[in-house]
Amino acid sequence: MDIVIFIVSMAALIYGADFIVEQSEKIALYFNISPFVIGATLIAVGTSLPEMAVSMSASYQGSGDIAVANVIGSTIFNISMVLGVVFLIAKSIKPKRDLFAQDSSWSLFPILIFILMGLDGKLSRFDGFLFLVLMGAYLIFLIQSNQVEELDDDLVKDKFDWKNTLLFLGLGFIFTIVGANYAVKSAGNIALGFGISQWIVGLFLVAFGTSLPELVVSMKAALKNNADMAIGAIIGSNVANFTMVLGMSSLIRPLNVDLNATFFDITAALIVSVMLVFITANKLYNKSAGLVMLTVLALVISHSF
Questions:
Q1: What separation in angstroms does the CA of 124 have from each of 69, 171, 250?
Q2: In the prediction, which pLDDT does 158 show?
Q3: Domain coordinates of the chain in residue numbers?
């Protein structure tokens, strides 16, 4: 029964996030915000809502391992699985933006700061506040590094309806919050039932489920030859996962972090982040890079189980 509840809860999370992302895009277009900023901010933050809802709920319920493992696992899945699939299915990837010079370092900053903060064995409320400040700095950087494009105001505003937008935003938040609550409870029960740790459940089962919105959005962007949005959404989502998700979760309740016990998983997240920097630096946006990233994911999963 817990497995059924978990699947239904994850579906609610994904649909809720989809509603929020779609309506956020409409609001952004209405206010004349550029597509890249939409992808790297609203879409990135929107697709991180499942992670935030799950981790905040886990923190509130005292399941700190699920909260932290969810972020670590999502980072691994977002880069290795999502970008791996994007590189495989995209016909050609030629980002107009210099992703290495402007954005790739942001995929490393949060995890390095997380490791430094975790040296004392916990993420305090002050650490959470610093994470949120970093998220604010990232958003300011994105907005300042992009010029707003001129859009067809008549086309955008004719399709915009505040009533429908607010309705679907509300439904999205309800689905996300309720889904997260039941996902955490059922995931904990599944862990107990199969005799596996909450860390492993959070690292793979929950993280995979909460990474599905990133996968869907990035695949759609790749198929439309919008590589900037696909890669930007992943970088932005990873920044949001560490800063916004862990920041909010540790504000609710300080989170314990055992760097020794989770050394392999955190190292794996760091390695795939470095791989992303290497790929953007050398512009290796091809199927070979995609296969390598998926291979790394398979090795991580094989080692953990």
A1: 17, 32, 6
A2: 52
A3: 2-304
CA atoms within 13 A on the CB side of 96: 6
What CA–CA distances, in Å, run from 106 to 46, 230, 260, 286, 290? Answer: 18, 15, 25, 22, 21
Question: Cα dihedral sign for 40, 285, 115, 298?
Answer: positive
Token pair belonging to 289: 């890079």
CA atoms within 13 A on the CB side of 159: 13
Closest CA to 74 of 52, 58, 43: 52
Asked if 228 and 94 count as a contact pair (C-beta separation under 8 A), the reply is no
Distance CA 218, CA 233 (A): 7
Q: DSSP per residue over 33-84, as a string? A: --HHHIIIIIIHHHHTHHHHHHHHHHHHTT-HHHHHHHHHHHHHIIIIIIHH
pLDDT digits (tens, 9 = 90+) for 41-95: 777 777 777 778 888 888 888 877 888 888 898 899 989 998 999 899 887 777 7
Whether CATH 1.20.1420.30 fits 2-304: yes
CA dist 10 and 182 (Å) reads 9
Tell me how far CA of residue 17 lies from CA of 156, 211, 289, in angstroms.
22, 11, 29
